[in-house]
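Protein folds are increasingly written down as discrete tokens. With that in mind, we are printing a sequence and the tokens encoding its fold.
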Amino acid sequence: MSGIRVQGLTKHYGEVVAVKGIDLAVASGEFVTLLGPSGSGKTTTLRMVAGLEQPDSGTIEIGGRLMRGPGVNVPAHQRSLGMVFQSYAMWPHKTVYENIAFPLRMRRIARGDERARVERMLAVVGLEYAEYGKRFPSQLSGGQQQRVALARALVADPQIILYDEPLSNLDARLRDTMRTLLRSIHDQVGVTALYVTHDQLEAMVLSDRVCVMNQGEIVQQGMPRDLYERPSDLFVAEFVGHANVLPVLDAGAGAITIAAGIALQVPSANRRGAASGMHRLVIRYHQVRLLDGDDAAVADNVFAARVRDVMYLGDRIRYTLELGAGCTVIAEAVAGERLLDKGACVRVGLPGESCIVI
């Protein structure tokens, strides 16, 4: 196995700077996700690592070997990569076996070894050779085709596997199944993985580390929990998970003040950036506490609120709560614990340790 190292990688399309001199390191065996909206540069970065796009500047190393840099440009087919695409990219006239075996035949692997490898990879992705080996892609479901694409990417024992939004064409239930399968296969095979998605749930479930991209730059990277609980800026706070974002009218050294004159105590460790300038208060929906009488006596930052709206989400209930004129927050509670009616009055806690001022 081997890792990836990217330094100063830049890509222009005319006047548009798609990737702005990013640095990225993926350790051997690590699963790293590039997460961001459309146009953030994540797919362009992946394609440059793959050798499918040529950078304007910067270097790319795989396994300590320079793949792209001054005077060096190793072709894509020589980079020992496997790649899983959004579109499956299967040959419709070839059987499942032939699709998976294609990388082995390009390397002139002996037929006996070829058969053993294909059968092993089909078993890894949960498809049996006897049932699926002779089928054609048109005889498979979308989820089965994606499993075949994954088997083909892994069959030649690549140093690196690249994923370009591979689950975006699947329905919600299949995505759940495939997320579990992908992580299980990664833990089993251990190949270094670089994954691209705009789906923050995929990034959270699959990744050892997530790099959030915006406008061609990596704006924050870290373990999924770190990004969710300690966003570095407003973009990350809003893109990774659901959050209340409230204007801060006064971010003094003591309590901060938000709309309706509401003052909150927020630890200094949870304040980002300079003391002056525009600030926002960020608190996740599930961190807003709906309090009973006993809870209210011991919680900090407790306020009276009125339930303005109730949304049933199956496993959760989402409440829109009005704290005062022009100040609302959203809270989520587990369905079945407690049900508040629209118009009800409630005590609400905004715990200081859960509040972040950006």
Observations:
- The first strand starts at residue 4 and ends at 13.
